Amino acid sequence: MKTYRLAGLLLFLMGIHAVLYAQQTRTIKGRILTLETGSKEKQPLPSASVVVLSKSDSAFVKGTTSDKEGRFTIRFQPQNKKTYLLKTSFMGMQSVFLGLKDSTSVNVGTIVLKDDDIRINEVVVTAKLKEIVMEGDTTVINAAAYKTPEGSYLEDLVKRVPGLVYNKNDKSLSYNGQTISEINVNGESFFSGSKETALENLPANLVSKLRVYDKRSKEEEFTGVDDGKKNYVLDLQTKDELNETWLVNAKVGFGNNRKKDLEAQANYFRKNGDNISLMMRSTNRYQNSIYKDNINNSIGLNITKKLGEDLRLSGSVNYGLNRNGNISSTYQEQYLISGNQYSSSVSESNSKNRNISGNFFGDGKIDKRTRFNFMGNFSLSPNQGENSNQNATFDAPPGIDQNNFFDNFESIPKDIRINRSENRSLSKGQSNNYMWMASVMRRMDEKGNTIISLNLQNSDTWGINKNFSLSNTTYYRLKDKLGNDSVLFRNQYLQSPTRNGNWRMGLSLSQLIAKKVRLNAAYAWSTLYERDNRDTYELSSLTTADTFGKLPNNYQEGYVDSLSNRSRSRFKGHDLSMGINYNDTTWTLNVMVVVTPQKRTVERKIGKLSADTTMNTIDYRPTIWLGWRKKQLQLNLNYDGMTRQPSLSDLMPLTDNSDPLYITRGNPDLKQMFTHNLRLSFQNQAKGVSANVGWRMEQNSVTQVMIYDSQTGGRETYPMNINGNWGVNAGANWWKRMGKFFSLRLDAHGNRDNRVSMINEDKSQDPEKSTTRTSNLNCEAHLSYQPAWGGLDFSTGWQYQYSLNSVNNNDTFTRNYRFGLESYVDLPFGLQLRTDATYEFRGGTNIQKDDENEVLWNAGATYRFLKNKTAELSAYWSDILSDKKNYTRTVTSDGFYEYRSQQIRGYFIVSFKYNFRTMM
Predict the structure, then answer these.
(1) Pairing of β 71-76 and β 105-114
(2) Greater confidence, 224 or 664?
(3) What percent of the chain shows pLDDT beyond 90?
(4) I want to staple 690 with a disulfide (CB 3.0 to 4.6 A). Which of 33, 200, 679, 683 is the partner?
(5) Cα angle value 766/769/771 (rounded, 5°)
(6) Distance CA 592, CA 519 (A)
(7) Per-residue pLDDT tens for 660-685?
(8) pLDDT (tens digit, 9 = 90+) per residue, 713-751?
């Protein structure tokens, strides 16, 4: 019966437009090409602005942009006895105006835009160019307005643009607080949108404009309707003179401390998005730990190509070999009701990871009303690693320098010691995965009032990890039969195979139900299978510590049933979604609700204990997006809500004691969690102002209750639901060009978070809340001076963090002051000098004197010679004063952490680079 009802609803929605959409709509179609100065061949012009204007008063009626082929379709509702104009434009080109005929369907044919004939010299461009302009929903940034030193990469350009922030540590990129998911080149994917590849490899002088916009999915492009899902991209528009040219370069660099930097690139770009790129690199230049074998080798090939009028293909293949080692230390203060617990650890690790991966994408059309697209990826990742660790726990501060902690361990009073452990591990594993997806979309009528889409997706992940572990744990408050400190020794081998598989099939409908209003409905069925096993073997009686890492022939005799497990789970779900979309020249509204009835089953066995769980639940995901725009002004309000079920491992009522100092068990009474996110953002590009504010709250958060054993220092955890996790954040920035050479940028960001955990120091009592409130404030100022002979950038920043924990009123604060200066000067005969320096002063709770100040000073020189300066000889000296530190502090709901790692104190590197340029 439910099936008949669903079919009836779909038929009703497909026919409703005949009643509600009775008014006549005027459709304008055409194609925009460009004829650049000095060129005879016309090329498609993507992202050109196309607007309909009222002829009497030039009032804006409707607007759109051309696609990657230069084609556009625009529909609007004409008024009686009114005439209209069509305006096509693109930054730096002459606009074209056409009168529109009084007809329901108008094909204006091919429109050719030419470069503006007005030419101005370089100094005037720097002074007169508009830095940032709005073209509909697209932010266009003129790269020429932000001068970078010759030879810079895209990363140097991005950090000069107001609102763009690239975090090199986690490879995240954002614009005015909005996450940018990928980087494209001329509207097409570049190495699957990899931000790191583009920012750290493409030269800055390749780019004429940077465009930030919400990239439409293939469904949105086909229907012309925003589905409410935001996918912001940074699209690089390449310079005209560099298009259809092979840009090839090679670099060789060597330095002290085993530093090397070998690189070769070949890039070919076309304005229509076609590109070929080959990148090869072997470097340890940016790996600053003292481990001598650090290296990062990579080879990548990316191709995007249009095949005829109806098919475009894109793909990339990458190979990577990464060896990384590190020596680090961690200090932790655990918040407890009876008195805090303190621990210190020192770790030395190294790893070797290989990866072979590929991505492919294609889209095209079967006929005028039917399009298709497909994509897929794969990855093969063998890996191996080694780690040695020492850790100790106390019930009072040990009072020893963290850098030499275990060398002076015996000086720590015995009455505050709880435990000490020494651990060593060797691991070797393999992880593989693939995914593919295909979809077909069809307009059910010529106007596209009704559109149906069908999609299919499959993925699979499998692998195995093999691990040898050797541990020796001393408990100072437990005694053996002879009255000595209790010692637990383990020599184990673990084997953990995993496999996950997923299938998903979906059907969606987009129906125009009234002027500027669309109804979107979809159904999808999905299934997921997971298998996760662990086999544990105790080798203490079968081998010796001297043969660690070798598996004896009779290792199966050491099988430990209580430390092994078998887990199987299966998920079956139905996604039912319904949404309304309204879009005109000023307002955009998207409202959507996704309801997911699901069935989850799990079978798990730990030792001789086993448990089966089956759950029938419903998840909800409501979203609301409201946008308003007028000329250079934009205001957006969005709400995202999502329920999430607890993990099946958390629900299983079984205890895992494979780590004696960290025992875990489940809780079958957990409830689903609901997360709310609300964000309001504002932009006024004409005034150079943007701001945003956000709010987050969680209901029924899953937190881990900690049960502490004062005798062993170990902890046992189990999950439970709790309320009280919330956070607010706000940010604003302002930028201004002052005269010809100066620009100023101010940024301020802050947040306040309330995080809750639970502590249970006595199993006979109910757990008590541990609440940590954290406040952060970060203010920065950047002043730039960019004359013709070079550049000078001054920056300063202040960061403050304060946290207060409800357990014994533990409070900590950290205050950082930073001053930076970066400059370069272009001298005669192709010589360029660069230097940058940063002074940072750090103060706060428990900040040691050696960690208070840090001065980083780097300098370099480059000499460019031969014809057209194609050869470069450069020298770079990093951390001239040898004062670099790697020190971070974090505060969570249950504790305070400090992390340090040993760093190379200064290095120099000398490089030679040759630039080829071949015209095609």
Answers:
(1) unpaired
(2) 664
(3) 37
(4) 683
(5) 175
(6) 10
(7) 778 888 888 889 999 999 999 998 87
(8) 888 888 999 999 999 999 998 888 787 788 898 999 999
- Which ranges of 494-599 would DSSP assign to H, the alpha helix? none
pLDDT digits (tens, 9 = 90+) for 400-430: 877 778 888 888 998 999 999 999 999 999 9
Residue closest to 324 by CA, chosen among 361, 356, 286, 359 = 286
Class of domain 132-242 (CATH, top level): mainly beta
Rounded alpha-carbon distances, angstroms, from residue 499 to 382, 442, 533, 615: 16, 36, 9, 22
354 class by beta-carbon count within 10 Å (0-12 exposed, 13-18 middle, 19+ buried): middle
Residue 771 has pLDDT above 80, yes or no: yes
How far, in Å, CA of 876 to CA of 862, rounded? Answer: 9
State how far Cα 651 lies from the chain centre: 30
Say how far apart CA 877 and CA 858 lie, in whole Å: 6
Rounded Cα gap, residues 593 and 849, in angstroms: 55
User: Vertex 448, ends 445 and 453: CA angle to 5°?
Assistant: 95
Q: What is the pLDDT of residues 546-584, one digit of tens each?
A: 788 888 889 999 999 888 888 888 999 999 999 998 888
Amino acid (one-letter) located at 574:
H
**DSSP class per residue in 199-213:** HHHSBGGGEEEEEEE
Q: How is residue 460 written in tokens?
A: 């699979």
Whether residue 3 is predicted with pLDDT greater than 50 in this model: the reply is no
Domains of the chain by residue range = 26-115, 132-242
Question: Is residue 388 very low, low, confident or very high in pLDDT (cuts 50, 70, 90)?
Answer: very high
Residue indicated by tokens 């509207």: 187
Query: What tokens were used for 280?
Result: 């090869």
Among the CATH numbers 3.50.50.60, 3.30.160.20, 2.60.40.10, 3.30.1330.30, which is that of 26-115? 2.60.40.10
- 234, 180 contact by CB (below 8 A): yes
Q: Which amino acid is at 393?
A: T
Residue 223, φ and ψ in degrees, nearest 5: -90, -25
By the 8 A CB rule, do 332 and 346 touch?
Answer: no
> Looking at the predicted structure, is the pLDDT value of residue 37 above 60?
no
Beta carbons within 10 angstroms of residue 688's beta carbon: 21
End-to-end, the C-alpha distance of the chain in Å comes to 65
In 3D space, the residue among 533, 531, 507 whose CA is nearest the CA of residue 521 turns out to be 507
Distances (CA, A) of 340 to 410, 488, 701, 804, 805: 22, 25, 25, 14, 12
What single-letter amino acid sits at 390?
Q
- Looking up tokens 């109806």 gives 310
- What average pLDDT does the chain have? 85
The pairing of strands 182-185 and 178-179 is unpaired
Q: 743 by DSSP, 3-state: which? A: strand
How much is the pLDDT for 226? Answer: 56
Tell me how far apart the alpha carbons of residues 769 and 802 are, in angstroms, rounded to a whole number.
20
Greatest alpha-carbon pair distance for the chain in Å reads: 105
| Amino acid, res. 6 | L
H/E/C letters for each residue in 373-430?
A: EEEEEEEEEEEEEEEEEEEEEECCCCCCCHHHCHHHHHHCCHHHEEEEEEEEEEEEEE
Each as own residue / partner, the long-range contacts of residues 294-299 (CB below 8 Å, 24 or more positions apart, any chain) are: 294/323, 294/324, 294/325, 295/321, 295/322, 295/323, 296/320, 296/321, 296/322, 296/323, 296/324, 297/321, 297/322
Torsion of CA 189, 193, 196, 198, to 10 degrees: 20
- At residue 200, φ and ψ (nearest 5 deg) are -100, 5
Token pair belonging to 440: 């077909």
pTM for this entry: 0.76
Judge whether residue 799 has pLDDT over 90: yes
Contact (CB, 8 A) for 445 and 455: no
Q: What's the mean pLDDT in 354-374?
A: 91
- Between 834 and 890, name the one with better pLDDT: 834
- Cβ atoms of 645 and 670 within 8 Å: the answer is no
Which residues lie closer than 8 Å to 637 by C-beta, 6 or more apart?
624, 625, 626, 627, 678, 679, 680
Name the 3-class secondary structure at 189. strand
